[in-house]
Amino acid sequence: MRTDPDLAAEAARGSEAAFAELVRRHQGRVRGMARRLTGSASAGDDIAQMTFLTAWQKIGTYAGGTFSAWICAICWREFLQVRRRTRPEIEFDETAEIIPFERPSDQQDDRMDLSRALETLSEAQRVCVVMCVAAGLSHREAAEAIGWPLGTVKSHVLRGVEALRKHLAKPKVA
Amino acid sequence: MRDDETFQDLTRLFAAEDRALEAKSFVDDVMGKVRRRKMVRRVFLLAAGGAGALLAALQVPNLLGDWILLDGSVDTTILSAISSAQQQAGLLASANPIWLAIAGVVGVTVAAVTTMERT
């Protein structure tokens, strides 16, 4: 099986088939990440599409390393751009405990426990958990992608995971 | 200790959610947009390049005529030939401002390539 860097090199030479294979391999991770960041399936998929279109344009700048970290960093930037367009009054503040985040109510009924548990986290914790736990980036990769200090990311992941576990362990009320 | 050792169980839960997402329609959508962008870029570059080539071709008779008239002043040494060519280019540009338009089209084309080219 061809590796991600091999496929990226082929895509950089113009191979649509190689790029399609990269999209197929990473779409789940990127869509999942965007959906969890936005709290919406449709908005998340839009961001994921923009992520891959940007990746196609910039595939020549991929310089090896973990492809998933590279594509997740693009996804994060696309998410921030959309966020700035839709809610320019909110700046990201990783020190804040709770930042209001507008979430559509159309899918509330369908949310799984995991999604509900994510929503109980502060936004900074949610971002770090989504990047490190859900998308599988290392703490360092996540810190580089989102531009926060490594220690801050580690601490948010630690607290976020703890809060997630507590929430998931709660007995369900029928 | 590796970063993910403390939350591998949660990572597996998230990954299971991600695997459940239907891939084919998403991949088709993305690749459709990639192809459309490629086509738009190709059409734009062909149109700009074609317009530039047409303008240049229209000027060939004038250029050749001007060149032949000016050719007598060209010296045999390389340095004077370069200097003379520079003078001729200046003369041509001032005598026929369409060259400025051609330079403009070339500039727009280069800008388009720079903007839309994949890096």
What does this entry look like structurally?
The complex is a heterodimer of chains A (174) and B (119). Chain A has 174 residues and is mostly helical. Chain A has 2 domains: 1-91, RNA polymerase sigma factor, region 2, helix turn helix motif (Rna Polymerase Sigma Factor, Chain: A), CATH 1.10.1740.10; 111-174, Winged helix-like DNA-binding domain superfamily/Winged helix DNA-binding domain (Arc Repressor Mutant, subunit A, Orthogonal Bundle), CATH 1.10.10. Chain A has 8 helices and no strands. Chain A has helices at 4-12, 16-38, 41-58, 67-86, 113-119, 123-134, 139-146, 150-169. The longest helix of chain A has 23 residues, at 16-38. Residues 96-101 and 104-111 of chain A have low confidence and may be disordered. In chain B, helix 2 (24-71) runs antiparallel to helix 4. The longest helix of chain B is centred in the middle third of the chain and has 48 residues, at 24-71. Chain B has helices spanning 8-19, 24-71, 78-95, 98-116. The mean pLDDT of chain B is 76. Chain B is mainly α. Chain B contains 4 helices and no strands. Chain B has a domain at 40-116. The interface between A and B is medium-sized, with 36 and 25 residues.
